[in-house]
Amino acid sequence: MKATVTYFLILMLVMFYLVSCKNEQKNTIETVFFTQDSLYKITFAKPLELDTFYSWDKGGCYGCDDKNKNCFSKSKFPIEKISGMVSNDYADSTYRLIIEHIDHFKCKSTYNFELSPRIRKNHLTDLKNRYAEADTLFIENIKLNNTETRIEAYKTKDHESDSNWRYFVHAISEIDSNLIVFTADCKSKNCDGFINRFEKTIKSIKIERFK
Question: How far apart are CA 105 and CA 103, in angstroms?
Fold first, then answer.
């Protein structure tokens, strides 16, 4: 009887281990990131290959269009910082995750997620205006930071002659009426598995008010 109970307990532990491993994203590390002014704490499962970090301010046409961008990137890919209409070291290949928010959080969003179709339309329209080709791969309703939103994936080509697609995974979250935008993109000879990997990364995001 004792042997049967012991065997049953071992079997349950093995099953629990297998289920846990199946649900855990491989080759990631839980990472804590604080936004500018340490207003918000963002926790997410960062892929280990994102071994480089840098940030910059992107100026817009008016004050509330100024954005702070924070980039987790793969070190073998070039650094790209675009500010306003000026582009320095424009990247012809990428593998990164960018976290973007309004500079200094001085402007609250006028959007709410009942207007999310407008946000989605504007984003896809922007891609089609910027790139020679743009196609939607999927749009999925998710709960991000306990808020109804959508995670979207696209592929684009910078020029009609490009041999490599650029892949995007994109989501917008909201906290205290501030929008925080998450965009992962890859342009390389091999972006296999990128969409699935960064879909899981974005779904792992948690945002808390720190101050």
Answer: 5
Higher pLDDT, 77 or 124: 77
Please state, in angstroms and as integers, the Cα–Cα distance from residue 55 to each residue in 23, 34, 37, 162, following that order: 31, 12, 14, 28
Record the pTM: 0.78
Distance CA(31)–CA(46), nearest Å, equals: 6
Judge contact between 180 and 172, C-beta under 8 A.
yes
Q: Check: CB of residue 201 under 8 Å from CB of residue 47.
A: yes
| pLDDT score of 111 more than 50 | no
As a whole number of angstroms, the distance between CA 170 and CA 12 comes to 38
Instruction: Give whole-number Cα distances, 117 to 59, 112, 113, 141, in Å.
Output: 26, 10, 8, 12
State the Cα–Cα distance between residues 169 and 202, nearest whole angstrom: 8
What DSSP character marks residue 18?
H
Q: What is the pLDDT of residue 109?
A: 60
- According to DSSP, the residues that pair with 151 across neighbouring strands are 140, 171
Assigned token pair, 40: 């918000």
The pLDDT of residue 105 is 63
Task: Give the count of beta carbons closer than 10 Å to the beta carbon of residue 82.
Answer: 15
Per-residue confidence (pLDDT) for residue 36, from 0 to 100: 75
Q: What is the residue-averaged pLDDT of the chain?
A: 77
